[in-house]
Amino acid sequence: MLPQKASGRASGIRSPCAIARCAISTRMENESVAVERISPMVAIADTVPKQASRFRFILDRRDVLGTMFAAPAILFVLLLVGVPFLMAVYYSVSAYTIYDPSWRFVGLANFEQIIEDPAFLQTLSNTFIFTFGSQLLGLILGKFGALLLLRPFPGRRLVRALIILPWAVPIALATVAWQWMFDSLYSVINWTLIALGVVTRSDAPNWLGNPYLAMLCVIVINAWRFFPFAIVIFLAGITAVPQDVIDAATVDGAGFWRRNYQIIMPMILPIVTIGLIFGIVFTFTDLSIVFLMTMGGPVGATSVLGFAGFQTGIVSGDVSHGAAISLFMLPVLLVVVVAMLRFIRRREI
Fold it and tell me: Which residues are in the ABC transmembrane type-1 domain (predicted)?
């Protein structure tokens, strides 16, 4: 009898696995019942049609919102650039002067007269020398400055912050400082050369009195003003080059100069060209350095198109010829910019 009780008692005891399976099945049955109760409500909610909005707020439309954001910039460009350009075209085909404000159509006679003027041809030549000379010097300084700032050294962050000062300092203040440095009597450059025994006091160069040295001075000043922008461009381009490419070139035996001018430079050439386009446009149309430093002298050796247009149209009152000189910059810049953009496109292809 005892074995039977033991077996009956043992058969009444459920194992832990059976208890767990029972609990899981019970839970699944409860969840299925809940889903069956909820699903009709969800179906009813889905079948209820949403009320269509009769009026859509205008700012929710992407095309309208984008146009509204771009409209102030477009209006600013039209008012600041478009209106003066149309006025310049209007005055360039007339005989308008301050002393004779009656408008009289003369066609392209003003352009023919300025092209036949030897002073204008010299001014055009000076503009090209000033623009491309300063940009070339600025690119060279920017290249070596970027390579220097890429290397770790004490105070590198401070130097990176201070290197922007030539670009940020007002050009009028900077030109006054440079004018003192190039002064014929109190030049700190001449004083240094005399102290080092390079030149004597009687042979000290007259920086702003010699035509060639005066052009060199304005080129140096504009390059000093431009090279922080060139450093930023080169830093952005060099840091964007994959390190794997530089490491592979180093493993293959490429030295410093070969890595920079056969590998890195071709890869960053498009972004450098874009920066160069901006520099050429700004320099070609600039008159501030020449106006503040040399006033176009000596004997017109540093006169550029922007300064000549200002002197002719504003100071002398010959508005028609001044407008013609100013408009002459447009086709020249257009040819240069289109040629450089085509060059970039071919390099990318």
Answer: 124-342
- Let me know if residue 73 belongs to a domain: no
According to the model, what pLDDT value does residue 1 have?
40
Q: How confident is the model at residue 78 (pLDDT cuts 50, 70, 90)?
A: confident
- What are the residues whose beta carbons fall under 8 Å from the beta carbon of 272, sequence distance 6 or more? 139, 233, 234, 237
Following CA atoms 330, 336, 342, 344 in sequence, which dihedral angle do they give, to the nearest 10 degrees? -120
Compute and round to an integer the Cα radius of gyration of the chain.
37
C-beta separation of 277 from 340 below 8 A: yes
* 167 Cα distance to chain centroid: 13
Domain count, the chain: 1
How far, in Å, CA of 173 to CA of 127, rounded? 23
Q: List CB contacts of 184: < 8 A, sequence separation 6 or more.
A: 206, 207, 208, 209
Does residue 285 surpass a pLDDT of 80? yes
- CATH, residue 333: 1.10.3720.10
In a domain, 7, yes or no: no
pTM value surpassing 0.85: no
Q: Read off the pLDDT of residues 157-209 as tens digits, 9 standing for 90 and up.
A: 888 888 888 888 888 889 989 999 998 888 899 999 999 988 888 888 999 99
pLDDT tens digits, one per residue of 223-250: 999 999 999 999 988 888 888 888 888 8
DSSP 180-194: HHT-TTT-HHHHHHH
Model confidence at 32: pLDDT above 90: no
* 157 occurs within a structural domain: yes
Domain with 274 in it: 119-348
CB atoms within 10 A of CB 218: 26
User: What residues form DSSP beta bridges with 105?
Assistant: 94
